[in-house]
């Protein structure tokens, strides 16, 4: 098979699955990405590949056609890859091409599945689907969904999310290899996960604690562009929000209750939260109540 990925955790899932089933990875394809969304994660992909693994780093998908045709793979599997794989490529493998998308399709198609956290979808999940010309539109071989947890921290979300991805990869590839037709996506349920805007990065302390936590987690996930907020009149980078459950709010949203190096305790719309900030120089001045 041929694997496509630009995100090390996603490639880790694919490589572990391939090793477990004794699938031979003929080629690993990665990329620095489009000019508007350049990334250096391809370097980590190269570093984590096993010794002797053939790797192709490219931004020109159609130029890979003769290379892949010569390899004659049985299957192409992609996960977290920023380019559309052209039909000239997906037509080559005997079984076809599938993609592991980290959302319960047809919800949150596109480049930003973190919107399922930001927008508080009722469930998180992953889908293995056939690769078609339209992004994330192919028939579904496995859709794995999990109820969204109350705690929206990375520690809570990551294990649940990766469990869904692993299950979708396992079940979906088995069905694809067996030649099952898959289930067409219901276009009435489709939604798009587009990039976050600058306005969406700005936090409003009048929101409930859980809403603030899920937005901060989504924005800063795996080194993404972190949230910003105003604390005591200063614009601050917010890395983490932890709701202090059961603590009633004694003041107006945004009122600072306590400070320590890198953390601020303040009021929000329905209680009190602890905020971890990047701007430590801005989080140690001012009064402590």
Structure class? alpha/beta
Strand line-up in the sheet with most strands? 3-2-1-4-5-6-7
The gross shape turns out to be elongated
Termini separation comes to: 61 Å
Structure summary, number of beta strands: 12
Summed over residues and divided by their number, the pLDDT gives a mean of: 93
Give a verbal description of the structure.
This protein has helices at residues 8-20, 41-48, 65-71, 87-90, 115-118, 154-177, 198-201, 209-220, and strands spanning 2-5, 27-30, 55-57, 75-79, 96-101, 123-130, 140-147, 227-231, 234-243, 256-260, 263-268, 271-277. It is an alpha/beta fold. The protein has a 7-stranded mixed beta sheet with strand order 3-2-1-4-5-6-7, covered by helices on one side. The N and C termini lie far apart (61 Å). The model is unreliable at 280-289 (pLDDT under 50).
